[in-house]
Amino acid sequence: MNENLFQTEYDVTKKDKLKNFYSQNKSIIFITIFIFIAASLSIFFYAESQKNKRAVLANNYVEAKINLENGKKDVATNMLKKLIFSNDQTYSTLSFLLVLNENLVSEKQELLGLFDHIINNNKFDNEITNLIIFKKLIFQSSFSNESELLEIAKPLISTETVWKPHVLLLMGDYFASKNENMKAKDFYLQILSSQGLQKDFYEHARSKLSEITND
User: Fold this and answer.
1) What span, in angstroms and rounded, lies between the C-alpha atoms of 80 and 98?
2) Contact at 8 Å (CB) between 171 and 138?
3) HEC sequence for the chain
4) Number of Cβ atoms within 10 Å of the Cβ of 127
5) Residues 85-120: pLDDT tens digits?
6) pLDDT tens digits for 12-59?
7) pTM of the predicted model, to two decimals?
């Protein structure tokens, strides 16, 4: 009997404490619940917004390719430029590479601006970034000076990227074309001292070194 009475008193006291806690913290509880619901809705709507945005970008990319296939280059180019500046990791890159591969932008400074925008405004996997830098190096190798090219090539040469041997050959060929044989030799020798490259890299480097030696 005494145990039941004690339990009843304990339950009443516990309920009173809970009521007092609720009464004293009612505003904080409601605010916390409101913030939680608002945050959950915000996350949901943001995710839906991003999903819809990417669907629009995907449709625009497909439409640009269709216009390109139908000979509407100006329309396709304008659509692709807008996609580039959307700063979407996937469709900005795909659009830029399509512009580059199809030679849709011929003005040097404009194309350099697109290169820089893509590199500086998107978070890529390192090798994707390196690929874009390598393509920029190829593009500029036809008109930029030695110091500019070396500056672009530097981050690719100083890291172990899959594009490093490509850059070494490109720079070797660049200097060989200008009859700066000692500089060209340095890049070709770096190829020959590298391990695990495809056979074509070694053969190209040996062939160019032979030409330099025989000149």
Assistant:
1) 8
2) no
3) CHHHHHHHHHHHHHHHHHHHHHHHHHHHHHHHHHHHHHHHHHHHHHHHHHHHHHHHHHHHHHHHHHHHHCCCHHHHHHHHHHHHCCCCCCHHHHHHHHHHHCCCCCCHHHHHHHHHHHHHHCCCCHHHHHHHHHHHHHHHCCCCCHHHHHHHHHHHHCCCCCCHHHHHHHHHHHHHHCCCHHHHHHHHHHHHCCCCCCHHHHHHHHHHHHHHHHC
4) 11
5) 998 888 999 999 999 999 999 899 999 999 999 998
6) 455 666 666 656 666 676 676 667 665 655 665 555 555 667 788 999
7) 0.72
Residue 6, pLDDT > 60, answer no
Residue 145's Cβ-count burial label (10 Å; 0-12, 13-18, 19+) is exposed
